[in-house]
Amino acid sequence: MKPAIYFDELEGDVLQCHLCPNRCIIRPGETGICKARKNVKGMLYSLNYGELTSIGTDPIEKKPLYHFYPGTMIFSVGSWGCNLSCDFCQNWEISKGRPRIVQRVIPHQLIEIARSEGTPGLAFTYNEPTVSFEFVLDTSRAAAKEGIYSVLITNGYIEQEPLKLLVQSISAMNIDLKGWNDEFYAKELGASKKHVLDTIEFVLSAGVHVEITTLIIPGKNDSLDEMREEAKWLASLSRDIPLHITRYFPNYKYTIPPTDVKTLNELHNVAKEHLNYVYIGNVPSEDLNTTYCPDCGTSLIKRRGFDVEIANLTEESRCSNCGKEIPVIL
Length: 330
Ligand code: SF4
Fold this sequence. Notes:
The longest helix has 14 residues, at 224-237. The protein contains eight helices and 19 strands. It is of the alpha/beta class. It folds into three domains: 2-46, no CATH class; 51-289, Alpha-Beta Barrel (TIM Barrel), CATH 3.20.20; 290-330, no CATH class. It has helices spanning 92-95, 107-117, 133-145, 160-166, 182-189, 193-205, 224-237, 261-272; strands at residues 2-3, 7-9, 15-17, 25-26, 37-40, 43-46, 51-52, 54-59, 73-78, 103-104, 121-124, 149-154, 172-176, 209-216, 243-247, 278-281, 291-292, 299-304, 307-310.
C-alpha cells in the first residue's frame, strides 16, 4: 500500500478523498467507490500502487490514438479499479475490483520493461488509470526523464488539482466522452458530464495531445441531435480534435445487441459537419478510418485494421497536395 494524496481529514478518522469528483467519504476500514483507495486507521492508501493486471505491446491505433505517432507500437499496462459505475463496461474483470492475480512492479522496473520492448512510449490503459494516480504520476515522471513519453486512456473523471500535476508528465490522452446526455451520465455512470468537459478543456489548454472516444450504445446515447451538440462543443475548442465514434458490443450486465453500423455512419456524418477528423471504431471500414485533408480531400493516412500507411503527408505534417498543416504528430 502506498500513502495516497488528495484527501481531507474529517472527524474521528473519517476521510474525504478528492482525487475525483465522487469525493468519497471513507470511514476507517472502508474503500472508496473505485475500491482502489482505503482508509486505514485515518490514513488514505492507494491499494493498487504498482499492481498490474494487463500488459501488452499494442499498435498505438488500438488505444485509439490516430494522430499521435501513427504506425508505432506502444507498451501498455493496466491495473484495476474504476471510479465510474458503467454496467456496459468492456473491461469489467479489472475495473470492478481487484482480480485474484496481479503482478507487482515499481516504476523503474516498468520503464525497463518498456525499454526492452523497444517502444518509445508507455500507455496507462485497460482500466481507469487515474485511480492509480500515485503510480501513474511516479512512473510517467520517471519515464519522461528517460525520454519515454506517457499516454493515458481515461474517462477524464478527475479533479482539476491532481490533473494539473499529472499533465506535466503526460504527452497524450484519449478521453472517453460517453455521449452528450446528462441523464445517461448520471444514471448509468454515476457521474457528471461537466467534469469530463472540464478535463478536456484543461488538458487541451495544457498542450496535451487529445483525442476523444464516444462508445455508442443503442437507445442510450445514439441520438443524432446529441452527437451534433457534442461535435459542436468539441469544435468550439478546436475543429481538429480527432473524434472516435466506436461500436458497442454487449458486455458485463448489458445485453443490448451491438450498435448498428448504419447508425454509426449517420453519427459520423453529423459529427463531420463540425469536426475535421472523425473515425469509426470497432468496425472494419478503411474509408472511415482514413485521415483525409480537410481542405483538398487527399488521403493522408490509410488504416486497414492496425495496418497503417502514411502517404501524402510531409515530414512537417503538411498535406503534400495542398500544403495544409495537419495536426498529426509524426
Ligand atoms: S478516486 Fe476513488 S476514493 Fe477517491 S473520490 Fe474517486 S472514487 Fe472515491
